[in-house]
Write a structure and sequence with these properties.
mainly alpha
């Protein structure tokens, strides 16, 4: 059991980077749909500088920065806040229960990004490369 724990512990930083990259790519999709209509068209294109437009902009910029692992901690904090805001503004008023108000994904994103705020980007990131080469 100690060998398994040791192996898992040695891979944890790399898997943290993988979590950040995959969450960033998935998050990026939401912004691309809102603002660019890719990979599918948004049902309603947001008005320029509307709340949904700003959410899409945060999702595109934040998603790209998270994928790269650049400024990971402050970006993760900002996008975690956006997801909390999205949940309480868009989902929670529909129902108390996340399964009924379709807020599960917003909650999950919020807590994954909140975790990244504290855990950092992992070794496969621009932040880690910059720390190695001051």
């Amino acid at each position: 059991m100690d060998r398994l724990t040791s192996t898992l512990n040695s891979w944890a930083p790399t898997v943290l980077s993988l979590l950040r990259i995959i969450a960033g790519l998935l998050f990026l999709q939401h912004g691309l749909v809102k603002l660019v209509g890719f990979p599918m068209a948004s049902p309603n294109a947001p008005a320029l500088f509307s709340l949904i437009w700003f959410a899409g902009a945060i999702e595109i910029v934040g998603g790209i920065l998270l994928v790269l692992g650049l400024l990971t901690r402050p970006v993760a904090f900002i996008v975690a806040g956006e997801m909390a805001f999205a949940y309480f503004m868009g989902h929670h008023p529909r129902s108390f229960y996340p399964i009924q108000n379709n807020g599960n994904l917003a909650i999950l994103y919020c807590f994954v990004f909140f975790y990244l705020t504290f855990a950092g980007p992992g070794p496969l990131s621009v932040d880690a490369a910059r720390a190695r080469n001051p």
